[in-house]
Design brief:
Helix 3 crosses helix 16, helix 5 runs parallel beside helix 10 and helix 9 packs across helix 13. This protein has 16 helices and no strands. 27% of the residues are buried. Helix content is 80%, strand content 0%. With 292 residues, it is mostly helical.
C-alpha cells in the first residue's frame, strides 16, 4: 500500500499542474473565438457554399427542367451505369477488405508488410495514372491487347474497364477501416471459439464479423461514395461514349462543356445528395457504434 502511494505521488509530481485539465486547456476567449471562426469559415467556404451553389443552379429554371435533365436518356444511362459499377466494385472491395483485414490482423505470414503497402498504394497514386496503367495492360497496343482482340474480349471502353479502374481507387477503404479494429481486438475471441469446437468459417461469421460490423458498414459507405464519384481513372478507360460508358461524373463534364448548365448541375445534385446521405449515415453509424 505504501509502495502504491509512493508511485502515485511521484506520478503526480511529474505531472505537476498539467493534470488539471480545466486550468491548462482553457484558452483566452479571443483565441477560442478565432479558432472556431476560422473552422466555421473554412467549412462554409469549401463545403456549404459549393453545395448550395449546386442546388441553386440545378433548380434555377424550375422543377420541370430539373426533372427533364434527369430523365433524359443519356442521363438515365449514366445513372444506371454508375450504380452498376459501384455495386460491383463495392461488392469486390467488401470481399477483399474482409479477407485482407482478417489475414493481416489475425495471422503472421511472409509478405504481410508487402500486402499492407499494396493496400495503401491507391492513396499515393493518381487516379489518372491508374487509368493509364490499365490502358497499357489492356489497350490495343498493351501487354494483353493482342490476346484480348484475338478472343474478342473488350476490357477498355466497356464495363469491365470501368469496374477495374473503380476497384483500384477504392479498395483501401474497407480494409483500412477493419485492420486497426481487428488488430486492437486481438485473437482471444477467435481462439476461444475454436477451442469450443467452432470451425474457421463459423468463427469468422459468428465471432469476427459481428465484432467489426460497424466498421465494415462505415468502410462500405465510404467505398460506395468514392466509387460513384470517381472521375480520373474512369475517364481514362471509359472512352466517353454517350449512353454506354459515361458514368455520372463524366456525363456532368460533357454537359458542362456543352454549356448545358442546368442539366449538368441537375445530375451533379444527385452526387451532392449522395454526399449528404453519406455524411448522415456516417454520423448515425458512429453514434450506434459508440452506444454499444
Amino acid at each position: 500500500m505504501a509502495l502504491a502511494n509512493t508511485i502515485l505521488q511521484r506520478r503526480n509530481a511529474r505531472a505537476g499542474p498539467h493534470e488539471d485539465g480545466d486550468e491548462v486547456r482553457r484558452e483566452p476567449a479571443a483565441v477560442r473565438f478565432l479558432i472556431v471562426a476560422l473552422a466555421v469559415a473554412f467549412l462554409v467556404v469549401f463545403l456549404v457554399l459549393p453545395l448550395i451553389t449546386v442546388f441553386q443552379q440545378a433548380f434555377m429554371h424550375g422543377l420541370w427542367p430539373y426533372l427533364a435533365a434527369l430523365v433524359e436518356p443519356d442521363a438515365v444511362a449514366a445513372i444506371r451505369l454508375t450504380l452498376v459499377v459501384a455495386a460491383i466494385s463495392v461488392s469486390l472491395n467488401l470481399l477483399f477488405g474482409l479477407v485482407a483485414a482478417w489475414a493481416i490482423a489475425k495471422f503472421d505470414f511472409p509478405g504481410k508488410s508487402v500486402l499492407i503497402t499494396l493496400i495503401d498504394l491507391p492513396f499515393s497514386v493518381s487516379p489518372v495514372i491508374a487509368g493509364l496503367v490499365f490502358v497499357l495492360l489492356f489497350g490495343a497496343q498493351g501487354y494483353f491487347g493482342a490476346f484480348l482482340q484475338a478472343h474478342d474480349i473488350q476490357i477498355l471502353f466497356a464495363l469491365p474497364g470501368l469496374v477495374l479502374a473503380t476497384v483500384f481507387v477504392t479498395f483501401p477503404f474497407v480494409a483500412r477501416e477493419l485492420i486497426p479494429l481487428m488488430q486492437e481486438q486481438g485473437t482471444q475471441d477467435e481462439e476461444a471459439a475454436i477451442s469450443l469446437g467452432a470451425s474457421g468459417l463459423q468463427t469468422f461469421f459468428r465471432v469476427t464479423l459481428p465484432n467489426v460490423k460497424w466498421a465494415l458498414l462505415y468502410g462500405v459507405l465510404l467505398c460506395n461514395a468514392r466509387a460513384m464519384g470517381e472521375f480520373g481513372a474512369v475517364s481514362v478507360v471509359s472512352g466517353h461514349i454517350r449512353g454506354e460508358t459515361n458514368t455520372m461524373p463524366l456525363h456532368i463534364e460533357i454537359l458542362y462543356n456543352e454549356y448545358q448548365f442546368t442539366a449538368a448541375f441537375a445530375v451533379a445534385s444527385l452526387l451532392a445528395l449522395l454526399a449528404l446521405v453519406t455524411l448522415i449515415a456516417k454520423v448515425l453509424l458512429e453514434r450506434r457504434a459508440a452506444a454499444e
